[in-house]
Amino acid sequence: MANRFSVHRQWEERYRQLILLAQQLPPLSSVLKQPQIELSGCENRVWLGYQRLDNGNLHFYGDSDGRIVRGLLTVLLTAIENKTPQYLRQQDPLILFNQLGLYQQLSTSRVNGLQRLSQRVLTIVSSGILN
After folding, report:
1. Helix (H, G, I), strand (E, B) or coil at 41
2. CA distance 79 to 93
3. Annotated active-site positions, please?
4. pTM of the model
């Protein structure tokens, strides 16, 4: 992921990379787009769900109606996929955005959406279901 963004210095080029990442995220089936995994308060519709794997790690899945948001979601999924709840409790899910130089370029509404996604991840790993 770092290589994808480090070679692009201009925001327009990074923006294009987010759109390309969005195309790689498999669409979520309508069966999985349930109200309980839809995030409220976002400009685009966004879903973030999870399942616990046999080894105790978490598999996350999601989707969005917006291309840029799908790209941002793909970056987030890269950071949180197949991690333990304990690891995710100790690690800021959005740290990768800073490392890639994406966070400071985002609009306020997209930053707010990312924070909602981060809060959703923290809610998932803090829930009693996983303990």
Report:
1. coil
2. 7
3. 42
4. 0.89
